[in-house]
Design goal:
The chain is mainly α. It has one domain. About 65% of the residues lie in helices and about 0% in strands. The longest helix is centred in the last third of the chain and has 27 residues. It starts with a helix and ends in a 13-residue tail after the last helix. The mean pLDDT is about 90.
Length: about 80
């Protein structure tokens, strides 16, 4: 796996906030991307990077939407009381 793909995969896992911003389909796509990224076939590695980038964008957008809606995300502490 090249360094750019490694960075994209790492970023995908970093923005994951289970279960707040994920769904079964996006978690499955993330696992597929991670597995494909380990391939010796450069075409599969390129596809893995693309899938991981899309999943990371989806998870970031879901986190942002929840913050704007006033719902706490897993990264935000809940108010006491």
């Amino acid at each position: 796996m090249d360094s750019e793909t490694r960075r994209i995969i790492r970023n995908m896992w970093r923005v994951r906030r289970f279960p707040i911003n994920t769904c079964p389909a996006s978690r499955h796509a993330a696992q597929i991307a991670a597995q494909m990224a380990r391939s010796k076939d450069q075409d599969a590695v390129d596809k893995a990077a693309s899938i991981a980038s899309v999943v990371a964008s989806l998870w970031k957008l879901r986190t942002k939407a929840q913050r704007e809606a006033g719902r706490p995300s897993a990264a935000q502490p809940r108010p006491a009381g």
